[in-house]
């Protein structure tokens, strides 16, 4: 577990920007977040060094998409010229056939909607 001490020696908590990278430090324990983590009502993914990810993220065989603000996307997302469906509950990218609002959609192995 990693922590960050400010110049005064106090342990930091909440959002922290260091050298252009964003980190989340728990408000109670002050521990740095890694992996999937919820904060301020959104889900985020933090790599092993604790920095917040943006763009496509692969975690344990599951793909997620983090916006420029770092928040994980859910529902329909248009990324790089293709449409993707990211599960509203888990934020995971969908592949294969998926029923969404009563309609069946097909998605390629890379998650892109096949139309």
Q: Would you write up a description of this structure?
A:
The structure is a single chain. This protein is mainly β. It has 2 domains: 1-54, Cholin Binding (left handed beta-beta-3-solenoid), CATH 2.10.270.10; 73-115, Ribbon (left handed beta-beta-3-solenoid). 0% of the residues lie in helices and 43% in strands. It has no helices and 10 strands. It has strands at 14-18, 21-25, 35-39, 42-46, 55-59, 62-66, 75-79, 82-86, 96-100, 103-107. The chain has a two-stranded antiparallel ribbon. It is elongated. The N and C termini lie far apart (45 Å). The model has no long low-confidence stretch (mean pLDDT 95).
Present the secondary structure layout.
Layout: E1 14-18, E2 21-25, E3 35-39, E4 42-46, E5 55-59, E6 62-66, E7 75-79, E8 82-86, E9 96-100, E10 103-107
